[in-house]
Structure formats: C-alpha cells, structure tokens
Amino acid sequence: MPPLTVEARLRARVAGGRKLDLEPSEHVTWDDMRAWGSERTIAATALRKIILDGESVHPGGVRLRGARILGPLDLESAELKRHVVLEDCAFDSPVALDRATALRIRFGHCDMAGFTAEKLAATSLELTGSRFLPPPSDGRRGVRLSGARFADQLSVSAAELRDVDADGAALVADGVRVDGHLSLDRVKAFGVVRLSSAEIKGYLDCTAARFLGCDKHRSALMADDVRVGGRLVLREAKSAIGAVRLMQASIASGIDGFAARLLGADADRDALVAGGISVGGFVSLTAVKAGGALVLSGADIKGQLNFSSSELLRANASGCALEMDGATVCSGMFLRGITAKGAVRLLGSHVALQLDFSHARFTGTDPDGDVVIADGVTVGGHALFRYVRAAGAVRLGGTDIKGKVSFGRAVIAPATPHGQALNADRAAMRGDLSLYSLIAEGPVSLRSATVAGRLDCSYAQLTGVDRHHNALIADGIQVGEHLCLGDRNETTGHIKPLRVRGAVRLVGARINGSLRIVTIAMAAQHTALDATGARITDELQWLPVSQVRGTVILERATAHRVEDDWDDVYRPRGCWPGEGRLRMAGFTYDAFGGRNKVRCGQRLDWVRGNHSKATKSSAAVFVPQPYEQLARVYKQMGRDSKAQHIAITRRRDKRKYGNMKFRRRALSWVLDRTIGYGYKTWRMGFLLVAIWAVAFGASHWAQQQDDLVMPIKSVAQAKSTPTADHPQKGYPAFEPAAYAVDVAIPVLNLHQAEYWGPNRAAPYGREFAYLTYVCTAAGWFTATMAVVGLTGLARRD
Fold first, then answer.
1. Strand pairing partners for 641?
2. pLDDT reported for residue 428
3. Average pLDDT for residues 714-737, to the nearest whole number?
4. CA 633 – CA 45 distance, rounded (Å)
C-alpha cells in the first residue's frame, strides 16, 4: 500500500484535533527547508481547502510543521473559522490574507515568499521567527498589513523582513489596529517598517530590533501618529541607515530606549524624529548612541525624561544633537554624562522638576557657537551643570528656574573668539547660583538676571573676555543674598579666590546681602571692577588677594559698610588701586569694618586714589564728594577732629589736584594757613594777641624816647605841651597797652590813637609810624579772616 500523501495525513490529523509534524529534529534551517522533497510537499490549493473546511476540522484548528507548500496560498476575503498554525514551513509563492476574517493565525519560523494581509480581521497574527523573501515571479511587495484589525496581538518577533517593495518598505502596517500587543522584538528589517496612524492598545515592543534599511525619505521606522496604549520599547534596538520617526505619536505608558543604537539618520541628519510626541509616563533613552539628532520639539512627557550616558555622535542641519523646543516634561530631565557633538536646544521648554546636565560633554556646537540653548526654559527644581565640559556657550537667557543653578567645576570654552561661555541674561533663579570652581574661557553674562539666593564665584577662573575686555557682565543683576566674587573664612582665614582676567561689571546691581570681593589677578590695564550705581544692602567686603592695578569704579554706589583689610607690609593701601584708578564720585556708606584698624591718613590716601594729576593728554581730576562722605562717617563715629582734618585736607587736595587758577589757588593757600578754611578760626585770636603784643612793645619803647610819641589833637587847655611820658592835666595820658589795642584791634576803640601818634621828625619816628601801619593792616586782616571763618564763608567752595 503506497504511503499517504501529506494532504491525506493532514486531513486525518486535523479531524482529530492533532498536529501534523513532519520534521523530527527540533531546529530546522532555511537550507533544510529548501532541500525537502515531494514527501514533505503539499499544494497550496489543498491546504486552502483544509483551512476553509470548517466542518471536518477540529476546533483546535489546522496545525502543520515541517512541510513545503507549493503555489500561492490565496485566502483573500476568506472566512477562516479555525485556528491556523504553520511552523517551520517553506512557501515558494506568496500568502494572501487580504480582507479575510480569521481567528488565530501563526506562521512560526516559516520561509515566506511574499505575505499580504491588508484589512485582515483576526484574533491574532504571529509571524515569529519567519523569513520573508521576494517572491520569484510576483515582484517585490514586502509584508503588507495596512488596515488590519487584531483583537489580541500582532507578533513579528525575530522575523527577517528581506522582501522590500518599490518604496523601500519591508513592513507596511499603516492604520493597523491591535487590541493587544504589537511585537517587533528582534526583528531584522531590510526596509522601512511603517506603522503610521497605527493604534495599539497594548505595548509596542521593538526590543533588539534591527532596522537595516530605509525608504527614499531615509526613514527606518515610520510610526507617525501611532497610538500606543502601553509602553514603546526600543531597548537595544538599532537603526543602521534611516531615522526612527514618531511624529505626533501618543504613548500612554512610557518609552524604554535603553542602549538603543540609532545610528541612521534622515536627509536632515535626524536620527529620532518625535516632534509633538505625547508620552503618559517616563522616557528612558539612557546609554543611547545616535548617529543624528534626537528631535522631540513640542513633546509632552508626563514622567521623567532621561538621556543619561547617551552619545550623540552627529549634529543635524541646524547644528543640534538634541532638539526639544517647546517641550513639556512633567518630572525631571536628566542628561547626566551625555556626550554630544552638537548643541542641545530647549527653547521655551518646561521641566517640572530637575534639569540635570552633570558630567555632560559637548564637543560640537551650532553655527552660533552654542552647546546648550535653553532660552526661555522653565524649570520647577534645580538646574545642574556640574562637571560639564563644553566647547561652546551655555545659554539660559530669560529662564525661570525655581531651584538652584550650579556650574560647579564646569569647564566652558567658547567656540569663537570673544564668544560667551555662559549667557543667563534676564534669567530668574529662585535659589542660589553657584559658579564654584567654574573655568570659563569666555565672558559670563548675567545682565538683568535675578538670583533670589546667593551668587557664589569662589575658586572660579574667568579667563575669557569680550571685545570690551569684560569677563563677568552682571549689569542690573538682583541678588537676594550675598554676591561672592571669591570667599574667605573669617574664622580660619582660608580663602577661595576668584581668578578673573578681565573686568567685572556690576553696573546698577541690587544686592540684598554683601558684595564680597576676594579676587586674584584682576585686570591690570583696563577696568577691574565697575559697580556704578550698585546698591549693596550689607557690606562691601574688599579683600583681594593681590594688589588691584586696574580701575575700580564705585560711582553712585551705596553700601551699609565698607570692610577692607589693610596691612602696611603685606596689603599696602588695602589692595585698593591709586593714582586716579579708584573712582568713587557719589559712593556712599555708613561705616567701616575689617580686621585691622585703618588710620585716618590711610583713609585719605584711599580717597586720593580718585584723583589724578594733569598730563599732556588729560586734565587733572578732582572730586570732593569722597572727602565729604569720609568726613560724614568719621563724624557719625564721634571723631569730630578727624572729620575736620578731612574737611581741611579736601581743600588742600583740591588746590593740588583741582584745575584752579592762580588767584583761587593763592586764596586757598591763605585760608589754609590762617583760619584752616574756617575750622581753625581760633588762630586769629592768637594772631591778634601777637600783633597787640608787638604794638604794645613798640609803644612802650616809644614812650621812653624823647618826642617819639606826640599829641595829635589841640592842646590849648593844657598849661604846656604834653609828652608821652609826662601827661598834662586836661589831655589824656598816653597808655601803651590801650594804644596797642587801638592800633592792632580794629573792632575796639580806646581813643588813644585819636590823641597820640608817631612823630616822624623824631629819631626812629618814621619806623615807628610804619610799624603801627603794619600792625593796623595786620589787625584788620586778622579780624577779617576771623569774621570769614566765624561766618562760614571760608567753607564754601
């Protein structure tokens, strides 16, 4: 009796609900399948009849393993009432299930020559481990599942999709609907996998998938507008040529892309295109390697977004390795240890919790030389850039950060000459801003920024400058606590200096704590510090480590107290600059402080640093306000004599440094030497006494001489002519003391000078007369200067 055919054996098996297994070995290779003969062959038409014969087939369905099917298996528009399970089977022609309805269909580890199931409605479809080759005569069509509906799952796990259609598609499942899971794990696709507008209620699993081809648009996985009710898994997935597209996709539970290798890119050099994506959970793209940019602009992520330890090996056409403009992350965003050869752009994004760039490495920039573009970003927690290494600028302009911002031990080098290292203009930081140990090889700009906490630049090295030689530009900054340009421990004396090559600009700054300046190697040829109009609520602590030789501008600034450290040996002048390089016009303060008590003379030398002598190219500069401010502080301290000394010194220095004409200079010298500009009017009293003494001595001597003093009024009533030493009745006697008063003190009249006067004809009479004139002139001058001093006229400038 001849052996039964495969068809007969299969009919007998399926009638009893059993499986027909023609392959004794457990593992079958593709070469083994091609070598099977007629004893393992069944016609596709016969197989079709068995599948469609619902009455003679057991409810367990048709189960066949190890057979070779000849001819096309055409099940288009058919109704499959039983399960179909074909494993380790070889097909030499296409399988068509278009518009069919079925229960479970499985093609496990089958060698397929074309497969279409468009608009199929089935419980599930499994193509696990199968290989899909182009059919020999029907042309290249790929695996087509567009519009199919699956009540349970769709699995293409571990399949090899080598059949690629004319558009470069290996799997076309646009609009597919899966009520369970869609598995593409370990799939190997040599063309694009298309899932556009697919709806998957379970997860979409692409674990370890290999997308080795692309379409004409350079897409390897096209899943625009896909809807996934579970998680999208891209763990260890690889795209070799094209990009992964998830534009406007909706992922309910999260994305797991750990260790994915997105090495392909589209024409714009984007490796992942997920603009407008919505994710209901976390997004983990840790340890990813990308050969193009990751684009998530407009993304809405309800959980955490993690790019930690990823390598972004190439920038796109915009110079970006990561684009997330306008994205929303409802938890933290982590880029710890990321390496990027392009910029990270987050314009206008919102991160609800922490933004962490710690240990990131940026070796490439955008065309503007930026590596992080985060202008307008809102961060609900901390923003950390600790240990960052950047070959371009970090931009945080207009950001709103609710926590602290830290650039601790970061190294930022601009990509262009005079390019910025950090730009945080108009940024609002609700915590501290730490530039601790930051190395910035370009200028740092904080114009109009708001720092609610402390701004700390301890141990920072700001070695880069802009075209105007500025290293730190913080005009209009508002700091809620201390602004530390370096720091020093008051207990131990340990210093943490700021090393700055160019100018520090704090024009119009508002500091609600102290401004602490502990710097080293400040600019020597240009402006070192410009704090014009700054408002310092607490102390201005001037504690540079070395002598500052550049210009320090404190014009119109205010501080509660000035604290500095003077030492005649190690810190002469307290490291303040001199010779016109300390500009303090309008600078006001209430007191002094510091370790060492500063003498009044040293403070005057400090004030004199505001002045400069005239040169061939510039006029002399003198500003009186710093003296007046210094005198006011000494007076508040109860040291009135020092305040007077300062007031006098101001006028002396004005004579020395001011642009005064000779006449005013001479008048100033006279006021100085006589009444001390009205502060030493008592000198005139002593001078008047001295003049009176001279006049008295001369008058007393003249009285002893014959006819040297003579009467100058009528002597008719006298019996004889009176003389100075022989008075006569009826004529006042000559009194040398009273006569000296009339001669030397103009405000007193004792009437001696009305009756007596020098006799020019007598010996020494002319000399005595001249002496009285001199004493009278000197008395008038002395009295006038006393009046000037007492009325305050001498104190007017």
1. none
2. 97
3. 67
4. 110
Look up residue 574 and give its two tokens. 């307290």
The mean pLDDT value for 16-31 works out to 88
Beta bridge partners of 451: 429, 479
| Cβ neighbours of residue 258 closer than 8 Å, sequence gap 6 or more | 235, 236, 284, 285, 286, 287, 288
Q: Are strands 551-553 and 115-116 parallel, antiparallel or unpaired?
A: unpaired
Which residues on adjacent β-strands are paired with residue 741? Answer: none
- Count other C-beta atoms under 10 Å from residue 39's C-beta: 10
Q: Which of helix, strand or coil describes residue 181?
A: coil
Tens of pLDDT, residue by residue over 73-118, are: 999 999 998 899 999 999 989 999 999 999 999 999 999 998 999 9
Q: What's the distance, CA 256 to chain centroid?
A: 31
**Average pLDDT rounded to a whole number, residues 157-176:** 94
Count, residues in the chain: 797
Residues of the chain above pLDDT 70, percent: 95
- Separation CA 608–CA 577 (nearest Å): 10
* Contacting residues for 121 by C-beta, under 8 A, at least 6 apart: 100, 101, 102, 148, 149
Instruction: Classify residue 38 by its DSSP letter.
Output: G
Q: Helix 662-674 and helix 640-657: axis angle, to 10°?
A: 160
- pLDDT tens digits, one per residue of 167-206: 899 999 999 999 999 999 999 999 999 999 999 999 999 9
User: Model's pTM, two decimal places?
Assistant: 0.84
End-to-end CA distance of the chain: 139
Residue type, 445: S
**Kind and range of the H or E element at 384?**
strand 383-384
CB 601: neighbour CB atoms within 10 A? Answer: 11
Q: Is the dihedral of CA 453, 457, 459, 460 positive or negative?
A: positive
Per the rule left: phi > 0, alpha: psi between -120 and 50, beta: everything else, 409 is left
Give the separation between CA 73 and CA 97, rounded to whole angstroms: 9
DSSP string, 38-51: GGGEEEHHHHHHHH
Contact present, 609 and 564 (Cβ < 8 Å): no
Q: At 507, is the secondary structure helix, strand, or coil?
A: coil
> Which DSSP symbol is given to 269?
-
CA 676 to chain CA mean position, Å: 55
Question: What SS3 class is residue 350?
Answer: strand
How far is residue 445 CA from its own chain's centroid?
A: 8
Does pLDDT of 744 surpass 60?
Answer: yes
Cβ pair 215, 191 in contact under 8 A: yes
Predicted pLDDT at 1 = 42
Q: Which of 145, 140, 217, 138 is nearest to 184 (CA)?
A: 145
User: H-helix or E-strand containing 742?
Assistant: helix 736-744
Within 10 angstroms of residue 325's Cβ, the number of other Cβ atoms is: 19
| Distance (Å, whole) CA 695 – CA 742 | 9
The answer to whether 703 and 734 are in contact (CB under 8 A) is yes
Q: How far is residue 8's CA from residue 46's CA, in Å, rounded to a whole number?
A: 10
**Per-residue model confidence (pLDDT) at position 615:** 66
Q: Given this model, what pLDDT does residue 186 score?
A: 96
pLDDT at 294: 97
* Number of Cβ atoms within 10 Å of the Cβ of 616: 4
State how far the Cα of 490 lies from the Cα of 375, in Å rounded to an integer.
38
Q: How confident is the model at residue 457 (pLDDT cuts 50, 70, 90)?
A: very high
In terms of C-beta density within 10 A (0-12 exposed, 13-18 middle, 19 or more buried), how is residue 338 classed? buried
d(C-alpha 378, C-alpha 400), whole Å: 5
Token pair of 682 as six digits? 């008592």
CA gap 127, 116 in Å, rounded: 12
Instruction: Give 192-251 as a DSSP string.
Output: EEE-TT-EESS-EE-TT-EE----TT-EEEE-TT-EESSEEE-TT-EESSSEEE-TT-EE
Tokens of 10: 């299969």
Beta bridge partners of 355: 333, 383
